[in-house]
Design goal:
Elements: H1 10-17, E1 34-35, H2 38-51, E2 57-63, E3 65-66, E4 78-79, H3 87-108, E5 114-122, H4 130-143, E6 145-155, H5 163-171, E7 176-182, H6 186-192, H7 198-210, E8 215-222, H8 229-241, E9 246-251, H9 273-289, E10 293-295, E11 299-301, H10 306-313, E12 317-319, E13 322-324, E14 330-334, E15 339-341, E16 346-350, H11 354-362, E17 368-373, H12 376-391, E18 393-394, H13 396-403, H14 407-410, H15 412-423, E19 427-429, E20 435-437, H16 441-444, H17 446-451, H18 459-463
Parallel strand pairs: 2-5, 2-14, 3-4, 5-6, 6-7, 7-8, 8-9
Antiparallel strand pairs: 1-17, 9-11, 10-11, 12-13, 15-16, 16-17, 18-20, 19-20
Helix pairs in contact: 3-4, 3-11, 8-9
Length: 474
């Protein structure tokens, strides 16, 4: 294990890192959402349109299918081998339902709106055939206007996608590719059932470069069984050798009581919290030495990448896709479990079961299962937390101008609480209430800072919560 005491006060780290805190990929978190019927969902769309007519959009499509199961995965996915009985029929039925969902969702936003982003996530969207992808794409283009510079991204499985499939995706207009690398160590890969040799990833990246995709993005995970500081060092260096445009460096959260597949993980081989801290600090140093910009909790981007540009322009946002550009866009979610975020109006989420989703769509019913209409206080805190997670600071003047509040009065109790965190070196607070998160300790413990501003948390509960593994994301 490398020394961390020169960079982080371990006593302070141990005191704060054992608390189980929310990730704040939304505010309020989904645990505070409630059942919502079609009429309530329609009212949210109507209010969103009245609030800002002429708004532009981001579209997220959830494709749940994967051919193989990765033990660490917490995504909403269906494991279905293409050669298995009924697989083709099941997939086609889902595709038809998704196309109907796209058309119905487009009709709710009143007019043929402009899409500036399209993101295909899952699961593994590349599970679909090129014909199915093309038909879905045509449905999108028939239902929305597409901006000339739209970002069109797909998450792929490099174990099943080769140069020919990538060429076809490029011809269909996709300009960004993202995929999970996770780890390059053979023992780690075999244990989590994600065997993906370096040479395979190298060849996929080379094909993407040859085809002139604008961006190639990696997901890496630390905290997996059998990982050591040295293996993480090797993985990060191998990833940097391929020069991805953007990297998400996620912490593995072991929650087998909620995710059944994780029960096959050998928990005795999980690194402890201080080892994971060392892994994160090492990766942080390696990425920054290679010229990458540290964005938010756990993302790194090359200075010319859209994520880094969005950070500079103030248009970065934190949502269910992690750190994302287009902070001014309303996000429409289609497909099973997909989430719609109507900015200062509210959230909607579709049902989580594939059969339930498809059956509802086939019957002409709304797939929305739950959601949340935002209060004024929700909107203020949502904006604050987005700025905090994206920029590692809070600028009171931004909130005061947008919401007509006096920051030091509105957040008087929270600022008092922050004094304790300031004394421990997590933040600095100026006379106007402006907050800066320290680097690296405060960035590592960002969720502890954010929890102070979460009105849905019981302060006693989050200060004396059940111990949890150190995490910057889980």
């Amino acid at each position: 294990m490398i020394a961390t005491t020169n960079e982080v006060d371990l006593e302070v780290f141990r005191r704060y890192a054992g608390l189980s805190l929310p990730r704040h990929v939304s505010y309020p978190m989904p645990s505070w959402w409630h059942e919502m019927n079609a009429e309530e969902a329609a009212a949210l769309f109507q209010d969103s349109h009245r609030q800002t007519p002429g708004y532009d959009l981001s579209l997220y499509l959830h494709i749940p299918y994967c051919e193989t199961l990765c033990k660490f995965c917490a995504c909403n996915r269906v494991i279905q081998r293409k050669a298995s009985r009924g697989a083709a029929e099941n997939t086609e039925r889902y595709v038809l339902a998704l196309m109907r969902d796209i058309r119905a969702t487009a009709a709710t936003v009143e007019g043929k709106r402009t899409l500036r982003q399209i993101h295909w996530g899952g699961g593994s969207p590349s599970y679909l055939s090129i014909d199915q992808i093309q038909r879905i794409e045509h449905t999108i283009l028939d239902s929305f206007e597409l901006a000339a510079d739209a970002e069109i991204a797909m998450e792929i499985d490099p174990r099943t996608v080769g140069p020919e499939e990538l060429r076809q995706l490029r011809e269909l207009g996709f300009n960004r590719i993202s995929f999970g690398v996770q780890d390059f160590d053979k023992q780690v890969q075999e244990h989590v059932r994600r065997v993906q040799p370096y040479e395979m990833v190298r060849d996929v990246v080379a094909a993407c470069r040859d085809l002139r995709f604008d961006s190639v993005n990696f997901d890496l995970i630390y905290g997996l069984p059998y990982q050591t500081v040295e293996t993480v060092r090797n993985t990060v260096r191998a990833a940097l050798a391929l020069s991805p445009n953007r990297v998400a460096f996620y912490h593995y959260a072991q929650i087998p009581e909620r995710i059944a597949t994780q029960r096959g993980i050998d928990h005795t081989k999980l690194p402890d919290s201080e080892t994971k801290l060392a892994m994160f600090l090492l990766a942080l140093r390696l990425f920054e030495e290679a010229g990458y910009q540290f964005v938010g909790l756990d993302h790194f981007a090359r200075p010319d990448e859209s994520l880094a540009r969005a950070l500079k322009a103030g248009t970065l946002q934190r949502n269910f896709q992690g750190m994302s550009t287009g902070g001014d866009l309303r996000l429409l979610g289609v497909g099973v479990s997909a989430i719609t975020h109507l900015l200062d109006v509210g959230f909607l989420q579709n049902v989580k079961g594939v059969e339930d989703y498809v059956t509802r769509i086939e019957a002409g019913r709304s797939p929305v299962e739950r959601g949340k209409r935002l209060s004024r206080d929700d909107c203020i805190r949502q904006a604050l937390l987005n700025e905090l997670y994206c920029t590692a600071r809070i600028q009171p003047e931004n909130l005061e101008k947008r919401f007509d509040i006096r920051f030091v009065d509105y957040f008087a109790d929270e600022l008092d609480t922050l004094r304790e965190l300031e004394s421990d070196g997590l933040v600095t607070v100026d006379e106007s209430g402006g907050v800066r998160v320290t680097h690296p300790l405060g960035r590592i413990l960002m969720r502890n800072v954010a929890a102070v501003f979460d009105a849905y948390l019981d302060p006693t509960a989050y200060r004396n919560g059940q111990p949890a593994c150190f995490s910057t994301n889980a």
